[in-house]
Structures are given as structure tokens and as C-alpha cells.
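Try this one yourself first.
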């Protein structure tokens, strides 16, 4: 579950950086009241931590995939 949360947060961060790069528009800052707003900073921190966690995904041994019901794919 933690892997999926980290992946979602990393995707959000990647999409936000894409918007910044292409349109110079920071969606997180826009939604949360600016880059220095406490909510924005918390989101940036969570995205950063999630990205660090996702690095560990690169170095794990192959794990069985679970469909959430207990069946392994």
C-alpha cells in the first residue's frame, strides 16, 4: 500500500513539474495558496519523500503482484 501511495505522489509531482516546465504554472502552489504556503510545502515534502521511497522500488527483488483480493498475478 505504501508503494502505491508513494507512486501516486511521485506521479503528482512529475505532472506538476511538467506543468511548470511547459506552462510555467505550479498547480500545487495555485491550489494551496502559493509556494511558500504551509499546505504547499507539506505537499512538496510528501512528494519528495515519496520519490525517495520509489528509489527503493528499483532495487527490490521481483515480488509477486497482488490484485488486492489476495490473488497473485
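Now uncover the answer:
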Amino acid at each position: 500500500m505504501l508503494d502505491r501511495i508513494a507512486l501516486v505522489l511521485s506521479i503528482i509531482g512529475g505532472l506538476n513539474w511538467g506543468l511548470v516546465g511547459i506552462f510555467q504554472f505550479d498547480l500545487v502552489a495555485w491550489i494551496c495558496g502559493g509556494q511558500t504556503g504551509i499546505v504547499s510545502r507539506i505537499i512538496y515534502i510528501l512528494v519528495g519523500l515519496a520519490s525517495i521511497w520509489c528509489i527503493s522500488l528499483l532495487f527490490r527483488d521481483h515480488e509477486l503482484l497482488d490484485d488486492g483480493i489476495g490473488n497473485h498475478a
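Discussion: The chain has one domain: 2-57. The chain has a mean pLDDT of 88.
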